[in-house]
Amino acid sequence: MILLGVALMALDHRLNELQTVRNALSTVAYPLQVAVDAPIRAGSRLLESFTSREDLITENRILREENAELRARQLRFDALQMENDRLRALLNTAERAQERVEIAKLLAVDLDPFRQQIVLSKGNRHGVYPGQPVIHPDGVIGQVLSTQMVSSTALLISDPGHALPVLSARTGLRGIVVGTGNPRRLEMRHVPPQEDIEEGDLLLTSGLGGRFPPDYPVARVISVERQPGQPFLDIQAEPLAALDRSREVLLLWTRERPDADTDAHPEEEGETTGREAEPEGEADMPEAADNP
Question: How many angstroms separate the CA atoms of 136 and 188, rounded?
Fold first, then answer.
């Protein structure tokens, strides 16, 4: 058999007589080879499919986590950017002010319709005193009502007991702006119907009363109504400062701090911080602010 095989190989090598037989056998065997190899290939593809799916799931999870982290960082960045913008605006206002100013943070806010107050992060230790103006880059916030060692309470201009002398930037018309208990609404009172006041007029501090320096923005007139038979106009104004949204404010040291008598009786100068504000001076200073 061995000799026969060797002889056939030699014959095929020299004469190539077995090529036809070999081709025929290959043709017959090919389907068998495909049938035998098919399960192996199918298994390999299935394994690759499972592997690819697991890889995709893992990659998707990683991308979701990275996206969530990036969004959180972006939110934090946006918050820091907004805080930076607020502080920059405060510092710019401080640089423009001729008086001494310091930034104070809000520790608490009370926006009850009958009591609009905020608690600030600076007090006696920092030189804060009752009656001290509190401002914001957009406008006047209010004034200090009482002080403690490291904090102070300020009355917002929207408090029903707060009255502030103002004038119209357009005409110079003077009046008194009082709070309504709504942080987005003020009233300008005791303006006769014949006076020149209209919607859009900018109201500034007049400087009367000795507490607020003149020309600080307070509010903008949003409506003027003339009621038949009424001696005064119904004038509504909107504070320029966001009284219900501010997070930092500026404490303003006026060049001449009001003396004890002025602090105790601001209504004598046309400026009040009592519960019932009237420009004629009928309001009483809250007991908390009697002793600067």
Answer: 21
